[in-house]
Specification:
The complex is a heterodimer of chains A (85) and B (1220). Chain A is built from four helices and no strands. Chain A has helices at 2-17, 28-45, 47-57, 61-73. The two termini of chain A are 29 Å apart. The mean pLDDT of chain A is 89. Among the domains of chain B are: 455-465 and 524-747 and 758-766, Methylamine Dehydrogenase, Chain H, CATH 2.130.10; 988-1067 and 1082-1125, 7 Propeller (Methylamine Dehydrogenase, Chain H), CATH 2.130.10.10; 1136-1218, Orthogonal Bundle (DNA polymerase, domain 1), CATH 1.10.150. The chains are: A mainly alpha (85), B mainly beta (1220). Chain A: InterPro entries: SF3b5/RDS3-10, Splicing_factor_3B_subunit_5. Chain A: Keywords: mRNA processing, mRNA splicing, Nucleus, Spliceosome.
Chain lengths: 85, 1220
Amino acid sequence: MGERYNIHSQLEHLQSKYIGTGHADSTKFDWLTNQHRDSCCSYMGHPDLLSYFAIVENESKARVKFNLMEKMLQPCGPPPEKPED
Amino acid sequence: MYLYNLTLQGSSAITHAVHGNFSGTKQQEIIISRGKTLELLRPDPNTGKVHTLMKVEIFGIIRSMMSFRLTGGTKGKRTLYRPCGDYLVIGSDSGRIVILEYIPAKNILEKVHQETFGKSGCRRIVPGQYLAIDPKGRAVMIGGVEKQKLVYILNRDAEARLTISSPLEAHKSNTLVYHMVGVDVGFENPMFACLEIDYEEADADPTGEAAQKTQQTLTFYELDLGLNHVVRKYSEPLEEHANFLITVPGGNDGPSGVLICSENYLTYKNLGDQHDIRCPIPRRRNDLDDPERGMIFVCSATHKTKSMFFFLAQTEQGDIFKITIETDEEVVTEIKLKYFDTVPVATSMCVLKTGFLFVASEFGNHFLYQIAHLGDEDDEPEFSSAMPLEEGDTFFFAPRPLRNLVLVDELDSLSPILACHVADLAGEDTPQVYLACGRGPRSSIRALRHGLEVAEMAVSELPGSPNAVWTVKRHKDEEFDSYIIVSFVNATLVLSIGETVEEVTDSGFLGTTPTLSCHALGNDALVQVYPDGIRHIRADKRVNEWKAPGKKSIVKCAVNQRQVVIALTGGELVYFEMDPTGQLNEYTERKKLSSDVSCMALGSVAAGEQRAWFLAVGLNDNTVRVISLDPSDCLSPRSMQALPAGAESLCIVEQPFESGAKSALHLNIGLSNGVLLRTTLDSVSGDLADTRTRYLGSRPVKLFKVRVQGSEAVLAVSSRTWLGYHYQNRFHLTPLSYECLEYAAGFSSVAISSNTLRILALEKLGAVFNQTYVPLEYTPRKFIINSDNNHIIILETDHNSYTEDMKSQRRIQMAQEMREAAAGGAPEEQQLANEMADAFLSDILPENTFASPKAGAGMWASQIRVVDMGIGGGQPNTLFKLPLEQNEAAISMCIIRWAAQGEQAQPHLVVGIAKDMILSPRSCTDGSLHVYKIYNTGKLELVHKTPIDEFPGALAAFNGKLLVGVGRMLRLYDVGKRKLLRKCENRHIPNLIADIKTIGQRIFVSDVQESVLCVKYKKRENQLIIFADDTNPRWITNSCILDYDTVAMADKFGNIAVMRLPQSVSDDVDEDPTGNKALWDRGLLNGASQKGEISVNFHVGEIVTSLQRATLIPGGSEALLYATVSGSLGVLLPFTSREDHDFFQHLEMHMRSENAPLCGRDHLSFRSYYYPVKNVIDGDLCEQYNSLEPSKQKSIALDLERTPAEVSKKLEDIRTRYAF
């Protein structure tokens, strides 16, 4: 019993420390939003990916970065209505 | 398969640039990051040339970089090893903060501190993306994109060494950070300003209203130095979203606070009772851009002196504005903006105290400008925040050519390389590398040739054919050479160098005989050796002659500042040495050698020494002997080396060792078969060791000692001319990109080519390639070489742009609008409007600096261009251009000879075109395949168009038919009279076909995100069948077939992999493993039933856009060449022996442990970024062996059971076997 409790608190710790760690109640939307935010961040962190986007879109790198930041606010649109329970 | 990775040309893009005095002297230096390398540049304030001091690969990704100086920086103890220069702090993907210092004595960057705080990788919450420094250098904030921010306190200890505290947290959950800067608060508690946005509410609101209303905030964090704690001091919502911040000087220098650069606006904000000051960003007058577009600043630079400061900020279009701030008793009253100049859009700008502006362009070449004017006294209008404007209205200005800046230097950049082919189009026996580089109007197609660029200073015709040339100084202390001596078959010509070069007869040289050698002797004497004797010319023109005895004549000689050695016919050596009175004395004995002398060389007399201690003699019996000149055992033999061929020429130079900084004598032996041997000559015993061999060309190698940048170098002349020099801790042997030379002498190089005398200068030392190029109009996407006539056909396509037609239409329309607007007004007004409209139509600014107009999403412009790269020796030029219509995007192409047209089939060009394509989410209304007939003049003639329903991602010729990737369908087409005829189709490619490569009946199809699929065409059934695929998802950019079963591929995350089909894989569908003949029976997880095996995995660290199997040097073996978006070129070389592989594997292992990468990223984990590295040894890491400390080199070599020289030799050998 104690061990189970322990694992539970460990998980909680992970969830608070690392954003995006899933739990039993994670929805598809949560997961997807986290995926998108992680991706956007990775695109900004790798200079070559940023250049790649800038070439394809024919925009300046600063603009591409700005657009990615803006997208991170709500990458997958508004969340779905929570079912009443 | 085991491969060895080697970078041939490092990345040439710049991601960050910071300036400071890193070497601790007053000199201004710039440190640039090129993604995974750091480079220290020093612009010479006198000449304006930018010199590279050092370069180091860090095997990690540099995400942010800042320079800082501790307060009272120069007060510390200044020693050779602690120069008290500026420090460099780096945020990388290592999960560590690293502080570096430049050590000028060793020319390295040294790690001062490395503090671990998180996981490695470019993660969302791990800090490293942003860095902010307190302007007084007391603290640094390092932040991630979300949540985490850490503050480190910087200080110095009693010995003036930099100390770093443990991190203080300033985390805030659910908060994204756009940018952060250190606020200049003088000596009050350090403060940082962050642009943040909180997404918590937006995430919880299903209506989407919260997301609309969420405001960005400007938050100030204060580091309380007393409490050792960071507090979130103040937060304020902003009206519009901003992209970056600029620190305004504070303390005694200015009002403090920050400038917020947001879309269309620039706002000044500060704590306390300061009002916000807001000024719109001015727009170009009559711009063709989409009027709905906002405008943002992309980068800025600050210039601060004791009395004033200003900012230069650049917009997306490249226009630089000078921003000044007006204050009234510490309160800011006004922001003023003034149009400064327009330069290509930059990632970083640096204003140097010496009056230069360094512009690191996002794509293409980088520039150094001199700031000639500050734009104070011109008629350019100044815009101010105090000027009344309607909401939403803005200022307008007219862009113009440079007025305040003067271009002084340009740094070549290949970035981005979008396509690459290696071919010998010019028939030069060494293949050239052809690259499609750049973006939009700044793009080009370039031909790269391995070689050093030569600047020709003078060329003069000579009477007859000379056979040798020398330059001498009249006096040792003179700065420049005084005479050029040219020897002919039966005469000698002496030219004096002054304002002009003219012939002189009173030099004391004997003009009626050919000359064997000349040299300056002692302080102010000259010596001429000719077949009948030696002529010693003293400063007062007294001449002492030594005559060759009897019937003997002098055949060879070697001369330096104090010694003369001659060889008489029959192999007799006579030695002369200068005594303290300046007299040349013959040594009492002569030495008889076993055979005739073919060449001789003496080293230079080292400073403070009496003589060179060794003479090297090449004999006709294919040996080289080293003979002592030590008075105690003069002319006695010391060592001997047997040669594979006769020695043609010898040269002893003093050059630093490849390994370590210590100088050593190197004996260079040029052989008659075109091979150069380079041997170390022991300075005590005269022993020869560590011989390196290089093949230089088909003619016998003649060697000449020259001086390059103050040190000795060897010029080797064979069928090509090579320069062997030591530069940035590495020995380079590089061909000169120049005509074939006969003879040379050092005077920043005088050379003879057939019957002309040429004076050459070598400037771009260290450059691997020299380039010729043709500028293009739009981004080159793909190009192919038409092997019939060696023309290059290029597809140029740009999103977000107008075609030429559309641009002129828009211009006419806008001019019309201008005229109409004034139509109802007074006649003068109308005339004014007419003039303005005419001027607008006629004055078109070049797009390569002023950027092309942005047309908006979904607007495409393309053209097909045929280029002749000057293969006949002429200038490279465009032969033919075929612009496509607006919104037609040319995507793919191939050259094909239709099998249906039989033996006489002409080559046709097929181009895949997408119409009205939207990038995200990808869609296009329809596409088409255009077939063009190719004429030998380069002209293309449309044969027919075939409509298709999707995006034509890739085309390939396949046994005289055409394979097309139409969206996710693979189709086979054959030619028809009116259009192409569809033959068969496979609909089982997962997403989108990005690339098709074929070999025999096999087709390797790359999916845009599901790696390579192997397809077999079954002729009898007329079916395309997927028979195997990869187990990993890979976002393929390009692939290259290595053999019938093996394919190499590169992906968008910077990996290269090689997939091989195991022997058990069968492409014969009759042997259906399920036994029920179900062709479409899917294997595991919807994949093919058979799988390829990955035999090689490697993370390059830059997106590889092109892969090709190529031979780079004549006589070399094939290697896999790759080109990247960052503009680097590298090769993967196959190991040919197990022994070599073992050796390098061990060397790499030792290097990993002994030479941990500078920014804290683990080498093994970097090379295994996405997939564990497999079967590739990183040569770039191994080559860092040469820059290790000698003691470390020794211990590694000991473990490998070799000497350091042998290790260096191994490293050089593997490089020169395949590349350069």
